[in-house]
């Protein structure tokens, strides 16, 4: 459940960011400039619904097209959820675009999930939007 919620937030953040602004042209399926999102991004927020309290989510995008995510609850009895995979940027993150990630979670080896989110980069902030209208603002670490 936590993994799905994390994925939903991650997707929501990326999709919403891209959905609220124009990518500058109609060729959204063409690869864009990955260099502006390369790095490690982190967001901290409170989620009473999961019962974990404070949550820290980290996303790392590497120049070789690989990525990883970590979802950590404040509750020490809750497992840390990690995933790794690949990503592609569809458009220009400075203008707002989509990032598509293909992730495999540590607790489900061999099973991949594809996530697409709308994102917009503003300086050291990466704003991600999901399909549910939720927004997460990640800060470059």
List keywords for this structure.
Lipocalin; eight-stranded antiparallel beta barrel
Q: What is the CATH fold-level name?
A: Lipocalin
Strand/helix succession: HEEEEEEEE
SS-based class: mainly beta
Number of helices: 1
CATH hierarchy: architecture:
Beta Barrel
Summarize the main sheet.
8 strands, antiparallel, barrel
Terminal CA distance: 27 Å
Low-pLDDT segments: 11-31
Q: What would you call the shape?
A: globular
How large, in whole angstroms, is the Cα Rg?
14 Å
Could you say how many structural domains there are in total? 1
In which order are the strands of the major sheet placed?
Answer: 1-2-3-4-5-6-7-8
Q: Could you characterize the architecture of this molecule?
A:
With 141 residues, the protein is mainly beta. The chain has one domain (2-140): Lipocalin (Beta Barrel), CATH 2.40.128.370. 13% of the residues lie in helices and 48% in strands. The two termini are 27 Å apart. Mean pLDDT is 79; it is low at 11-31.
Can you describe this structure in just a few lines?
By secondary structure, the protein is mainly β.
Give the topology, please.
Blueprint: H1 2-20, E1 39-47, E2 53-61, E3 66-73, E4 81-90, E5 97-105, E6 112-122, E7 125-129, E8 135-140
Antiparallel strand pairs: 1-2, 1-8, 2-3, 3-4, 4-5, 5-6, 6-7, 7-8
């Amino acid at each position: 459940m936590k993994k799905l919620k994390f994925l939903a937030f991650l997707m929501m953040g990326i999709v919403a960011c891209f959905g609220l602004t124009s990518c500058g042209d109609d060729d959204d399926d063409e690869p864009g400039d990955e260099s502006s999102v390369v790095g490690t991004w982190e967001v901290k927020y409170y989620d009473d619904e999961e019962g974990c309290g404070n949550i820290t989510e980290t996303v790392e995008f590497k120049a070789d097209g690989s990525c990883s995510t970590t979802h950590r609850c404040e509750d020490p009895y809750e497992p840390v959820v990690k995933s790794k995979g690949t990503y592609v940027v569809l458009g220009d993150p400075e203008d707002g675009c989509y990032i598509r990630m293909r992730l495999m979670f540590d607790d489900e080896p061999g099973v991949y999930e594809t996530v697409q989110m709308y994102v917009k980069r503003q300086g050291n902030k990466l704003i991600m939007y999901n399909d549910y209208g939720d927004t997460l603002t990640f800060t470059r670490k």
